[in-house]
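Let us begin with a simple case.
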Amino acid sequence: MKNTTSLINAINYRRSVRVYDANKKIDSAIVKKCIQQATLAPNSSNMQLWEFHHITSKEILKNLAEACLGQSTATTATEMVVVVVRKDLWKQRTKTHINYLTKLFSVKPSNEYSKREKFALNYYKKIMPFAYGDFFGIYGYIKYAISWLTGIFRPTYRQLRKSDMRVVAHKSAGLAAQTFMLSMAAENYDTCPMEGFDSLRVKKALQLPTKSQVNMVISCGIRKPEGVYGERFRIPFESIYKHW
């Protein structure tokens, strides 16, 4: 019950803070711990196609504040965390999984692998390359056509285009970002997720590769009373809750 109460408290405590107190510092080691906890978030096929850039450098913070369009939550932030999608690393992640599973199951003749072990290995040897492999978006449409035809006869996975896989990777990164913010809230630290930013300038400030994608910039600090803009407002639950 205690853990449940702690989670509820963290959920209620978390607000998008727009102004931080410059006189109250946060412990970078705790922020790092919260990032480590964020890596435990659920993610598609456990591919972990993400990076977390923890910024404490005043110079980079200044550059990021400018890239975040001068928002007060950025200009007053003590630290920042930038969640980056690395869909381009899918081959590397796939190999890592195959190596891990091979060690876990031990090297042996193929006929000695159990059905579960074969499925796990084939998932990363065959299914992931099929899902993430692409050639200028063309292969994605071929896969989409195959899934559409298959779907006539039985349920099938359909989100296989390049744009679909981009959404998949960003959803996983978003889950990790939320986990990070709740972990920060549990430490009585404040955050604010920002989507209003110049992605090219953010990538330049962090020297990110061209194929990387910025999912979210999260400012961190300790709130000032005026940093929370009023009571939390949500659409009436009855209008968004559908029970079947």
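The second case is a distinct protein. As before, the sequence precedes its structure tokens.
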Amino acid sequence: MKRRNFIYTSALAGSTLSLTGFSVFANPSQQKPAHNFQLKYAPHLGMFRESAGEDPIAQLHFMADQGFTAFEDNDMMNRPVELQTAMSKVMKERGIQMGVFVAHKIYWEMPNLASGNPEKRVEFLEYIRKAAEVAKRVDAKWMTVVPGHRDLKLRMGHQTAHVVESLKQAAAILEPHGLIMVLEPLNFRNHPGLFLTESPQAYEICKAVSSPSCKILYDIYHQQIQEGNLIPNIEACWDEIAYFQIGDNPGRNEPTTGEINYQNIFKFIHSKGFTGILGMEHGNSVAGIAGEKAVINAYKLVDPKS
């Protein structure tokens, strides 16, 4: 999850400004969606900008027209309130469920939660309070949490205790609002040195926190690299998984471009009765409109058959 590789900060199209400052189509497509996906796949801004244009509102309408019923936006916390409100309005009108956004500053190269530093804990909890307000504004249920880098001066047991304590305090903030932070283990190749890397570790932490507001974000791309054995590991962690993210390996592009058998994985997830969101946190293997069509066709191919 190299956030800067997947976050697209959309330029606003001046010719389509409304009173909110962002274009909101008065008459969205009344046609039936082009596809009827069995699972809630969530594109992000920029994935279809060649087809839909630069405006984030236009991109949301395009996603809905294609049959996508979810959306995720890692950078939602940093977007203007007016844009957050406008995007939320369109999502409600078009039947799109908001997925994750990143809830806090992520420490990629230095320890924060693992260190037990009280100042870093206070900072993290303040981010969680702000994230709760954003979640309510955009009607989101989940937010991504990454505990940051390992503290190389501490044993893993001590680091884990520090992380668990911070997450317990964060869960106490989120529980009254029915919100869920989802912990994302990240692979060693893209993000060397991070504290949280594997699904069993995330499972252990969630059990220790013991809160409905602390669950796992199982990123299939990261865990293919980190541990493999995907379906058995998903099964083993199932009661703590609240969210999935997608990306094939190698390349971190759409399903069917790498070695991961997404047809079987999605069939398994669907068979378990999963009704949550699967974030499309990957790039497009081909540039331009042709590449955007290829992404849509890939999901048509691997989506479970009804």
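The first strand starts at residue 40 and ends at 42. The chain has eleven helices and eight strands.
Keep these points in mind for the review questions at the end of the chapter.
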